[in-house]
């Protein structure tokens, strides 16, 4: 129970603390603003009262009397009581009081510095006088009853000082504090209840889990995700990759993927699978690697873009195993046909011997060429054992299909290009054999120089339609069906190999009547 409430209590206490601190800070600032507003209000009122007194003709004329306080004291007291001020004091040029709330103080010197108003300027501030600490305003009195020092002939003849005790200002502020405290107290209570609601809402959103449980789940998810042999890529509604495991980066050959847009990281077919969705899986190329791609699609049942997940399974080993099995099957069929022909030859020799035709038997044996069906020709010896073995298997396959396969080789390709040549030649020959009919011809030409290796595969089959030539190397495009999921991988792989090496792959009409596929693979310059 304690553990179940710990996160809620932590959130509640933290938010309540934040609410209280913010409320307290706002209250202090509000009280300061209120105090400043009260002080400004008093100042404006006191300035108005002081200037009004300084302009009164009875006050100005009284300065010429032998006893000016007789006329000034009653007027000042009436104005003080009417204005609810603590004091109204009028002084002459020597700082002698001509009025005061305490009549006994009349005729005495003021207790504060009168030099600023006597110099013709208005002053306001807090000072301590005979009545205590007060907030006061001091203005000059001019001889013409005006308050402008720039009038011609005007001179300062005295000063007027009005003020209110600081204790009265504090009392005015305190009278307004209950309302402020009630407002801020209500805000704090509402904030605490809001914090409790937010804490409960957050807890429901995280399924009642504690922070350590969430961290443990995230760690398990990351461990499981990155240890999967299948690639997993998650894309959000904006098309940005939010997560991708190590297998995905290895299969695609790019990294890191997270945080990048799917258009930048996924090839065209992979991006199409991601956008359209493919629950059953589709064979596509990730670089030069065949993979099975599955996706949930980026849209929900209502057509809204919500993001999706792409799963990638490496198909390279299975693809190579199928190709190897196909080659072994072709080789087996060729050997079976060769054994059948050899058995027929033995029957002929046996018959001739039974008939006593010794010379005819000897001549027939001399005409039999051992190993002919699997011999790629004398030119193929320079191609290396791996490529020669591949061509031998293709010859066996072509004999089974009744297709005449000819191998022409010029020069020896460098060892570092043999792997790519096996991929290129194997796919091009397979593609040509599928396009040929019984009785057609097929010629494989390999020209190796110091700078490049050129592979040409000509056939006398059906050829490639003109409308399909521009897209025949695109992934998923096949002469057996322009967009077949089961086909369209071999030629796309050939072009990617050529582009990786800085070469090119193209198709055109063959002199044999069918199609000519030509691939140029540049050879890296060797350092002696």
Distance between the termini: 77 Å
Poorly predicted parts: 482-486
CATH architecture of the largest domain: 2-Layer Sandwich
Q: Note the run of SSEs as H and E.
A: HHHEHEEEHHEEHHHEEEHHHEHEEHEE
Number of E strands: 14
How much beta, percentage-wise?
15-25%
Radius of gyration: 52 Å
The rough form would be described as: rod-shaped
Membrane topology: Multi-pass membrane protein
Enzyme class: transferase
Keywords: ATP-binding, Cell membrane, Kinase, Membrane, Nucleotide-binding, Phosphoprotein, Transferase, Transmembrane, Transmembrane helix, Two-component regulatory system
Pfam family, one: HATPase_c
How would you characterize this protein structure?
The chain is an alpha+beta fold. It has four domains: 38-172, Beta-Lactamase, CATH 3.30.450.20; 214-313, PAS domain (Beta-Lactamase), CATH 3.30.450.20; 315-374; 375-522, Heat Shock Protein 90 (2-Layer Sandwich). The chain is 48% helix and 20% strand. The chain has 14 helices and 14 strands. The strands form three sheets. Strands 6-5-9-8-7 form a five-stranded antiparallel beta sheet. A five-stranded mixed beta sheet has the order 10-11-12-14-13, with helices on one face. Strands 1-4-3-2 form a four-stranded antiparallel beta sheet. A hairpin with a 5-residue loop joins strand 13 (504-509) and strand 14 (515-522). Helix 10 crosses helix 12, helix 12 (385-400) runs parallel beside helix 13 (418-435) and helix 13 (418-435) packs antiparallel against helix 14 (490-500). The longest helix has 54 residues, at 2-55. The protein starts with a helix and ends in a 6-residue tail after the last strand. The model is unreliable at 482-486 (pLDDT under 50). It catalyses: ATP + protein L-histidine = ADP + protein N-phospho-L-histidine. Keywords: ATP-binding, Cell membrane, Kinase, Membrane, Nucleotide-binding, Phosphoprotein, Transferase, Transmembrane, Transmembrane helix, Two-component regulatory system. It is a multi-pass membrane protein. Its EC number is 2.7.13.3. It comes from Microbacterium proteolyticum.
């Amino acid at each position: 129970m304690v553990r179940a409430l710990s996160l809620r209590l932590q959130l509640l206490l933290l938010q309540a603390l934040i609410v209280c601190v913010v409320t307290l800070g706002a209250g202090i600032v509000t009280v300061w603003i209120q105090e400043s507003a009260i002080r400004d209000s008093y100042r404006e009122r006191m300035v108005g009262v002081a200037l009004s007194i300084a302009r009164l003709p009875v006050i100005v004329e009284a300065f010429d009397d032998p006893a000016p306080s007789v006329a000034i004291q009653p007027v000042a007291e009436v104005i003080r009581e009417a204005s609810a001020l603590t004091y109204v004091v009028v002084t002459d040029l020597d700082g002698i009081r001509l009025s005061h709330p305490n009549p006994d103080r009349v005729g005495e010197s003021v207790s504060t510095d009168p030099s600023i108003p006597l110099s013709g300027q208005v002053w306001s501030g807090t000072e301590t006088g005979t009545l205590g600490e007060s907030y006061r305003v001091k203005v000059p009195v001019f001889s013409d009853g005006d308050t402008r020092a720039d009038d011609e002939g005007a001179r300062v003849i005295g000063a007027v000082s009005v003020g209110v005790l600081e204790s009265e200002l504090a009392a005015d502020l305190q009278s307004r504090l209950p309302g402020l405290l009630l407002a801020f107290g209500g805000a704090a209570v509402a904030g605490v209840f809001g914090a409790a609601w937010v804490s409960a809402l957050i807890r429901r959103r995280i399924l009642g889990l504690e922070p350590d449980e969430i961290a443990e789940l995230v760690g398990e998810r990351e461990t499981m995700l990155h240890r999967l042999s299948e690639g997993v890529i998650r894309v959000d509604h904006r098309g940005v990759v939010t997560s991708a495991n190590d297998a995905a980066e290895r299969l695609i050959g790019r990294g890191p993927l997270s945080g990048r847009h799917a258009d930048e990281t996924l090839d065209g077919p992979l991006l199409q699978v991601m956008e359209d969705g493919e629950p059953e899986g589709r064979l596509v190329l990730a670089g030069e690697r065949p993979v099975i791609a599955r996706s949930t699609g980026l849209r929900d049942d209502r057509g809204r873009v919500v993001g999706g997940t792409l799963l990638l399974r490496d198909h390279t080993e299975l693809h190579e195993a199928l190709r190897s099995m196909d080659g072994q099957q072709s080789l087996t069929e060729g050997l079976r046909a060769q054994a059948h022909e050899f058995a027929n030859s033995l029957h002929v020799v046996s018959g001739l011997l039974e008939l006593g035709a010794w010379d005819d038997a000897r001549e027939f044996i001399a005409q039999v060429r051992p190993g002919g069906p699997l011999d790629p020709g004398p030119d193929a010896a320079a191609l290396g054992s791996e490529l020669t073995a591949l061509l031998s298997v293709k010859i066996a396959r072509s004999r089974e299909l009744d297709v005449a396969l000819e191998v022409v080789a010029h020069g020896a390709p460098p060892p570092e290009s043999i792997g790519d040549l096996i991929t290129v030649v194997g796919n091009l020959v397979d593609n040509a054999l599928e396009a040929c009919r019984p009785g057609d011809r097929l010629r494989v030409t390999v020209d190796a120089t110091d700078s490049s290796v050129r592979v040409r595969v000509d056939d006398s089959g059906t050829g490639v339609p003109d409308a399909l030539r521009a897209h025949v190397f695109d992934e998923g495009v096949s002469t057996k069906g322009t967009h077949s999921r089961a086909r369209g991988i071999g030629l796309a792989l050939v072009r990617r190999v050529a582009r990786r090496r800085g070469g090119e792959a193209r198709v055109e009409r063959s002199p044999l009547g069918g199609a000519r596929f030509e691939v140029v693979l540049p050879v890296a310059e060797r350092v002696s």
